[in-house]
Amino acid sequence: MNFALHGAERLPVGFLGIGMRHMYLEGELVSGGTLVDFVISPRHRSVFPALMLQRQGRAEALDSMQILYGLPDTKAVAICRRLESQLMFELPRYVRVVRSVVYLERQLPRWLAVPLSGFVDALDQSGIWLQLRISPRVGEWVEEFDARFDRLWNQFDKSALCVGLRNREFLRWRFSRQPARSYRIFVVRSYYDASLLMYFVCEINSAILRVRDCLNIGSQRDFKAGLLLLSREARRMGLKSVEVQISGPAGLRRTLARAQFLVRSTRPFFAMVGQSLRDRAKSVRWYITPADEDV
Asked: What is the reported pTM?
């Protein structure tokens, strides 16, 4: 943690927290960190103190870390854009509607939106059923992150990615030990055995199922089936939509679109990389979800 100090008494007027994160770059374990808890006192909330604190904190962190990244909130984006980053991209937020009445009522009178939504939802439900009818995949809720999640992580192909650690220990720390948050775990497995093909860590609020993390070791076709299984489950629960924030391998956006997940918004992702890894970090895709940010 770094502090910005003011005056002869060196009173703290801001701080920047950096959390440790184990990262894999093309399958090689590297030390990483994520920028968290960036705060400046309102009395000193001008550009210079914020820039000074960010620059100093980043420089000191990169002395011991090979990768440093951040997903800033709205108020911090302007500051982060002024600072040097070796890599920057927009993290998409995809949304799939599973109950259309709320959205149709924004455009149509209720007397028309309600019956039309019934037709649209029935058509969508039939489409999902047809696509899953011959799929040998099963989706179900589980209570904990067990040994199968370690096997899934070990089998996940990291060779062309920069990706943060996602083993059972990390998932338990990130999601199971959050007293103020409630997460549910949806897994997709083969019809023939209990081994996992993918998981979705979900948070439900305001009738929206938000995927906070997911990982797939199957094909893109398997991932599409998993998204449809999750969407079907969200409809069964009476929710109105499913939301996924993710960047990852080539073909991911196309698979999401085929499962009718559309981009609704984006948020900036920044990364600073040590000199020895910069070329490699720029040549790979980054696997990023909300699991990679501070809670």
From this structure: 0.89
